[in-house]
Design a protein that fits this description.
single chain; alpha+beta; Immunoglobulin-like; 10 helices; elongated; binds copper (II) ion
Length: about 425
């Protein structure tokens, strides 16, 4: 209501000013003054106003820097973050210099060379040397910026070293899950067809394939028994048959996957990607050792998300159907950063930086950066506890009992089923 009143007052004020201007125009006309006549006094006042504006403009600029400077991100906590900040600051310095030179010239000239009857503008049509200077100088600066930028970008996006720690960040609406390799240091293969309540990332192992096939068989048996023991309308019968056919197709693909896995393992033995999944650690916590290179492998189950760790200056899209990556070396531990920030409760944070749905704002996971020894202790502890499926992802509801599960349920299992649709 207050807002409405303020809006009303503003509109009325604008109308009043417009009316006043109109009255002023009419009275000038009555006095026999032409609208386009401008007196020397008018010109002098406008010239002075240009200079006043310049001072106010710069004062406002510095005030903004002073008032909001502390809203910027604190010191970068990763190696590439420092390089990235240096690149950005280098750009800022050039921008500030150009900003002050061009704006000062603009306002100064506008004020100094205001119209005077006894002065005539100097006609200056063309000068090759001047053209050359103002083309070559900015081009040289741009070249430096681009080369500096490309080199930094190349370093940041280049391949990770082979002995980097591999950590997977798995995004889905609306949370993150981390996966650490087991003793072998290698993350196992995954397949979305195997996603279920206790295998939320779809890790491919003999057990997970057997389990998923058993689940599908149980689903099918449940539908079959409904078909045999209940009297159903024709439409419903057709629907259940279609569901069974779909389960058959899903199972056939998983059997294919199993064949592929067996062949690959027979051929490559321990080098097969399928040989490494069984000991992977799937966990709702995100810890990294200090000063050790980590290669973040980023995946998404549903829509495009974006893994964003602002204090590390790290960001990479999580795209369904592919694995993206981002390598970095954390250089400041959580404890040290708490001292820097003078905030006991400070935590590094992994955020989603793509608006991915209703709870996007809350899609986050704290990141703990700690000394290698502390990290090792945490990792050893993490390996001991099996993945705890969140309560939402309980046992899958049988299709017959919840025929509308696909459209309404939000359990992990139905998401997986939806993803299976051809
Ligand atoms: Cu998201």
């Amino acid at each position: 209501m207050t807002k409405l009143l303020i809006l009303l007052v503003l509109v009325l004020a604008i109308l009043a000013v417009a009316q006043l201007a109109r009255v002023y125009e009419l009275t000038s006309k009555l006095r026999g003054k032409r609208e386009e006549d401008i007196s020397p006094a008018d010109n002098r006042m406008n010239a002075t106003l240009w200079w006043v504006f310049m001072v106010v403009y710069y004062a406002f600029f510095f005030w903004l820097m002073w008032a909001y400077g502390d809203k910027m991100l604190p010191v970068a906590a990763s190696e590439h973050g420092v390089a990235l900040d240096a690149l950005l600051n280098f750009n800022w310095v050039i921008l500030f210099i150009v900003f002050f030179i061009t704006n000062t010239l603009l306002f100064w000239f506008a004020g100094k060379y205001a119209y005077r009857a006894d002065r005539k503008a100097y006609y200056y049509a063309h000068n090759n040397k001047l053209e050359l200077v103002w083309t070559v100088v900015p081009a040289a600066f741009l070249a430096v910026i681009i080369i500096f930028g490309l080199r930094t970008w190349q370093d940041i996006t280049g391949p990770a070293s082979p002995d980097a720690l591999q950590v997977e960040l798995y995004a889905k609406q609306f949370d993150w899950t981390a996966r650490y390799p087991g003793e072998d240091g290698i993350l196992g293969a995954t397949d979305f067809r195997l996603i279920n309540g206790d295998n939320p990332l779809g890790i491919v192992t003999k057990e997970s394939i057997t389990k998923r096939l058993a689940e599908l068989a149980a689903d099918k048996a449940e539908i079959d028994s409904t078909l045999h023991h209940a009297i159903l309308p024709d439409g419903k019968v057709d629907e259940l048959h279609a569901q069974m056919a779909k389960i058959d197709r899903q199972a056939a693909r998983i059997v294919n996957l199993r064949t592929m896995m067996e062949q690959d393992m027979a051929e490559k033995g321990d080098a097969s990607a399928y040989a490494h999944g069984a000991d992977d650690v799937v966990i709702k916590e995100f810890h990294l050792p200090l000063r050790k290179e980590v290669n973040l492998l980023i995946r998404s189950r549903d829509v495009i998300h974006s893994a964003y760790i602002p204090h590390m200056r790290a960001q990479m899209n999580a795209v369904p159907g592919m694995t993206t990556s981002f390598k970095m070396v954390p250089t400041i531990s959580t404890d040290s950063m708490r001292l820097v920030m003078k905030d006991e409760a400070f935590d590094f944070i992994l955020l989603c930086n793509k608006i991915c749905g209703a709870s996007h704002y809350n899609m986050q996971m704290p990141l703990v950066v700690e000394e290698q020894g502390t990290y090792d202790a945490w990792y050893a502890e993490a390996r001991k506890k099996p993945f705890q499926a969140p309560p939402m992802a309980a046992a899958p509801a049988p299709p017959a009992a919840a025929p509308t599960a696909d459209s309404t349920s939000t359990t992990v299992d139905s998401t997986a089923t939806a993803a299976l649709k051809p």
